[in-house]
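Module 6 notes. Inverse folding takes a fixed backbone as the condition and produces residue identities as the prediction. Think of it as a translation problem where the source language is geometry and the target language is the twenty amino acids. Below is one complete input and output pair. Work through it position by position during the lab.
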């Protein structure tokens, strides 16, 4: 089946050229959701009044077959819990730490030597990463320790730096600022799973970044790692697509990558993995971008738990406040709309898009142009799924393989009738799961 390769305007050039705000905010209170999209259950392991240090365990989230530790990004006192909006756009319970601005570290001075790192077994790396609470930072939020624990024979580890969605530049920033962390993280994974090859996948248009990574690789001639310059289309960053473009390996959809001898990690995740192994440092900071025509476009380095309203204020507030805004958490293709900007930064919060236009788009009838079918990267039929969903026909939805949808957003993007196909397909997935 031939799928149309779709190029979409990504608006990244200007964002990349704008220097990021380096100074971290000293927010008075930091908020840590006790649940996440993948972990619907969670609980704090601290109580009001407890004194907490940077990197200390404060709670645990629980998913279907895994858990995720929650660690504080500041030192200070635990105060009464509050509800805030997390990266899924939902209002969730948060552990709240009143920042004492001393930033006392939980395990000061901890460092493993390179020799110690080289001797770590796969099980030891898995334990370190589980303790750090690291999940896939490209948005998937899948726990990294589960991937790392694979018992399959791995031929190649892919560092996925494709960062496909328009407006998102946090992986680009991280790779550009920290190329050695990305490569060191990749080497740790390769050693842990005994993989003979590593590939860093970056879109070929990112020439400066590729040069930076290749220059850094000269310091790692002991490792069999190369940069794969992949084509610029959407969704080249979908892991099955990235693996195919970077290694030539075809992974059948619905199977686990490791069964095809491949592991795929987002590049920022690998950098954070290195920090956890080398310095025992969990992820406590990330890059976050505020973008769109309704705000001054700014990228920040932020502590997890920072209220986004403080960042909006730091960026100068909303532009044209009299014009209604559309807010999108994440990228415009896969992100979620929200009407509440009382959002907090979590490990997977990449950006907030602020557009000067109302959300009430009027839908026209389907003109049977088949564009949505042509662009779908997994080869399903979005228009038939939409019709079956609107008819609540569960059997038909299953026949149409609705669960293959990766929610890339392309069908909605391409539809001339402005039918919210992706949203209907999300609903359809919920219909078949009941
Ligand atoms: S959102 Fe789903 S159905 Fe639509 S194009 Fe992407 S994968 Fe296909
Ligand atoms: S792209 Fe829109 S108008 Fe064209 S077939 Fe699909 S749903 Fe219908």
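Target side of the pair, the amino acids:
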């Amino acid at each position: 089946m031939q799928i149309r390769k779709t190029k979409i305007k990504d608006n990244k050039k200007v964002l990349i050229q704008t220097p990021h705000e380096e100074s971290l905010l000293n927010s008075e209170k930091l908020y840590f959701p006790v649940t996440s999209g993948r972990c619907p259950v969670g609980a704090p392991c601290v109580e009001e009044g407890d004194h907490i240090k940077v990197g200390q365990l404060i709670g645990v989230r629980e998913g279907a077959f895994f858990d995720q530790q929650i660690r504080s990004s500041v030192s200070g006192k635990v105060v009464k819990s509050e509800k805030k909006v997390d990266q899924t756009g939902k209002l969730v319970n948060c552990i709240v730490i009143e920042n004492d601005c001393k930033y006392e570290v939980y395990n000061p001075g901890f460092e493993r030597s390179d020799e110690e790192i080289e001797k770590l077994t796969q099980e030891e790396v898995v334990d370190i990463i589980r303790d750090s609470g690291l999940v896939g930072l490209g948005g998937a939020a899948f726990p990294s320790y589960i991937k790392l624990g694979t018992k399959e024979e791995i031929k190649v580890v892919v560092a996925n730096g494709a960062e496909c969605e328009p407006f998102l530049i946090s992986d680009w920033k991280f790779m550009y600022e920290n190329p050695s962390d990305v490569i060191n993280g990749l080497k740790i994974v390769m050693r842990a799973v005994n993989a003979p090859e590593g590939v860093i996948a970056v879109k070929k248009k990112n020439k400066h970044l590729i040069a930076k990574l290749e220059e850094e690789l000269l310091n790692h001639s002991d490792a069999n790692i190369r940069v794969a310059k992949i084509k610029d289309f959407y969704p080249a960053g979908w892991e099955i697509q990235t693996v195919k473009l970077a290694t030539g390996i075809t992974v059948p959809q619905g199977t686990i990558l490791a069964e095809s001898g491949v592991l795929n990690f987002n590049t920022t995740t690998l950098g954070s993995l290195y920090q956890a192994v080398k310095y025992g440092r969990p992820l406590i900071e990330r890059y976050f971008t505020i973008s769109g025509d309704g705000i001054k476009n700014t990228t920040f380095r932020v502590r997890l738990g920072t209220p986004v309203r403080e960042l909006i204020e730091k960026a100068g507030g909303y532009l044209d406040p009299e014009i209604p805004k559309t807010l999108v958490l994440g990228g415009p293709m896969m992100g979620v709309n929200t009407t509440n900007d009382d959002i907090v930064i979590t490990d997977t919060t990449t950006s907030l898009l602020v557009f000067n236009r109302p959300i009430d788009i009027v839908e026209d009838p389907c003109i049977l142009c088949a564009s949505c079918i042509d662009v779908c990267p997994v080869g399903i039929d979005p228009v038939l799924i939409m019709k079956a969903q609107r008819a609540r026909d569960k059997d038909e939805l299953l026949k149409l393989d609705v669960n293959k949808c990766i929610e890339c957003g392309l069908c909605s993007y391409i539809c001339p009738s402005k039918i919210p196909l992706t949203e209907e397909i999300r609903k359809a997935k919920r219909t078949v799961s009941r």
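Reference fact for the lab report: The chain has 15 helices and 16 strands.
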